[in-house]
Amino acid sequence: MFIVSSSHLAVPGAEDLSEFEFALTVANHAFQRWMTCGMQAVGARDLSPLDVLVLHCINHRNRPKSISDILFMLNISERHYLNYSMKKLEKMELISKSKAGKEVFLQATPKGSEACQDYARVRQACLLDLIPKDRGVAQSRIDEVARALRVLTGFYEQASRAATSL
Predict the structure, then answer these.
(1) Where would I find the HTH marR-type domain in this sequence (predicted)?
(2) The domain 7-130: what is its CATH number?
């Protein structure tokens, strides 16, 4: 038996994909809830899941990121979503902007970097300690699941392009 949210999409032979989509939806919402709760725990309140992702992306490797790099890294297709997060994070003094020619670069402020490091400590205490030491979950290793998700992302990207051309 497959666990699906939309039986009309669970066509014979593709029930597993419907089950995957439902599991992905539930996992996505749990992950988003975790990100916001994790940041609230370190005092960074009122951040959306996208705000949290953008902050961590900007803080990554402690070097400035261009807007196009962030859009690409996070697979964001609508720049206005990023613009809203950038304004919010800048107002909270978690990131700063600089310009090089016409290009805008973003960098985490010391306050933003500290929030990311504090989040990492909360993540260690609340999440990582729950994960089995062998990194196995449901007969798969977490890195294998991540690789499979990247492959499936490509399928969904291609399907999106195909649907756009209909």
Answers:
(1) 40-139
(2) 1.10.10.10
**Interior angle at CA 19, CA 2 and CA 126, nearest 5:** 115
Report the 10 Å Cβ neighbour count for 89: 25
Domain locations along the chain:
7-130
pLDDT per position as a tens digit, 6-15: 888 888 888 9
Measured at the alpha carbon of residue 156, what is the angle toward residues 152 and 162, in degrees to the nearest 5?
Answer: 145
At residue 43, the 3 state secondary structure works out as coil
d(CA 163, CA 30): 28
Using alpha carbons, list the distances in angstroms from residue 74 to 12, 55, 111, 116, 139. 33, 11, 22, 17, 28
User: Model confidence over 24-44: pLDDT tens digits?
Assistant: 999 999 999 999 999 999 999
Round to whole Å and give the CA distance between 98 and 127.
35
Count CA atoms closer than 13 A to 161's CA, side-chain side. 5
Reading the block at residue 144, the tokens are 């294998």
